[in-house]
């Protein structure tokens, strides 16, 4: 159950945004086998004055935060990075240098699901 937060510059159309969400989900399915129903994604569009980035980044700069249960191997995480970046380029033409991904893995006791602490 990864939780996904994607941040982009404001101004993309609905088709672009849907493709972006589908691409990240499909890449996670390919990389770590999440099921189709497991879509806990949020897309934030920011005004240019609220989204600082390095000068060499384009208007397609995309930041992705993935919060998931701990336990994935280093190789699985590398596959996540590779699949997302590859598919964003293939489907939306976003260059690798415009993709920034971070994975966060809070301990199980910090997850609450249906009113229960995960063990």
Spans of at least 5 consecutive residues whose pLDDT stays below 50 are none
> What is the C-level CATH assignment?
Alpha Beta
* Global shape: globular
Number of strands: 6
- Provide the succession of SSEs: EHEEHEEE
Q: Assign the CATH superfamily.
A: Macrophage Migration Inhibitory Factor
**What is the percentage of strand-forming residues?**
25-35%
User: Radius of gyration, rounded?
Assistant: 15 Å
Distance between the termini: 14 Å
**Count of DSSP-assigned helices:** 2
Can you tell me the CATH topology? Macrophage Migration Inhibitory Factor
Major sheet strand order: 2-1-3-4
Helix content: 25-40%
What average pLDDT do the residues reach?
94
Can you summarize the main beta sheet? 4 strands, mixed
Query: What is the level-2 CATH architecture name?
Result: 2-Layer Sandwich
Tally the structural domains: 1
Estimated structural class: alpha/beta
Folded structure, characterized:
This protein is an alpha/beta fold and 119 residues long. It has one domain: Macrophage Migration Inhibitory Factor (2-Layer Sandwich). 32% of the residues lie in helices and 25% in strands. It is built from 2 helices and 6 strands. The protein has helices spanning 14-32, 74-92, and strands at residues 3-9, 40-46, 62-67, 99-104, 112-113, 116-117. Strands 2-1-3-4 form a 4-stranded mixed beta sheet, with helices on one face. Helix 1 packs antiparallel against helix 2. It is globular and about 40 Å long. The two termini are 14 Å apart.
